[in-house]
Give the backbone structure.
Amino acid sequence: MIEEVRQLESTAVAEIQAAADDKALADLRVRHLGRKSPLRLAMGQIGKLPADQRPALGQVAGQAQKAIQAAFAAKETELRRAADAGSALDVTLPGRRPLAGSAHPLTQLTDELTAIFEGMGFDVADGPEAEDEYHNFDALNTPADHPARDLQDTFYLEGGAGLMRTQTSTVQIRVMEKTPPPVRVVAPGRVYRKETVDATHHFAFHQIEGLYVDRGVSFADLKGTVEAMGRQVLGAKTRVRFRPHFFPFTEPSVEYDFSCSICGGNNTGCSICKGTGWIEIAGAGMVDPAVFEAVGYDPEEFTGFAFGMGLERIAMIRYGIDDIRLFLDNDLRFTRQF
Ligand code: PHE
């Protein structure tokens, strides 16, 4: 009997050590330690033995049970270690940083500019990029035969469905059509022109439009507003210069320049202002009475000013960007820098 139990023990331990996986180990547990296992059956016999033989068998059976349990425990640990080594989880690796996005430089500039104008009492307005000729040209005092249309050639939609707007001035018309005066809005957005793309030209770029109409709005208000904006965006020392210009929808019209914030106008070799000391920023003027008539405002009662500036220009000066194409390339190496 004692020999048999010893035999059971060594067979069980050998089988356990050879178990290939958890499943095999569970089967072996039933077979060697279960209620009907040979060991348990042998233990059940102990009581039936003559009293002097009981302790010896009891001791051997107890040892066998311990040895088998120890073999199970060892094998379990071994199987778990093997499974861990094969898995991809290495708790010593640092975690992967989540990709945190940030606003595009033009979006940042738009937010900054609209906040400046909101501080001066302007609302933010919006309009469609796919426009009709009426809002892009006719209502802006630019009839079909007007030579100014040549300067703003663009993409026309198929089947006479309209065009891609060439300027955010369209939003002036859309706002005045639905709002009686006074109005004070800025309208940032994308515009399109038929341009050959190079470092300083793109067929798609961005403008921010401003419109202020009320009784008694003057040219001085325009200049003060533009100057206040320039000082906040490019620094407190910024000066503004107005040059006479022509736009069909403003009269008088100007182009305005900001003093160069890079060289302060002192460096003849400055690549930003080309040594002139001035940077051309935008077009502006007093709203032409013909525009007021198109939207049903009384030009005898109301006056207003409008301006439109290119965002890329300001961003390029601000951040020292030398190629306008970078804004729309969607290259993360560029956009991540802001
Ligand atoms: N829309 C004009 C342009 O794109 C700029 C402008 C806006 C001029 C408002 C005058 C008034 O060139």
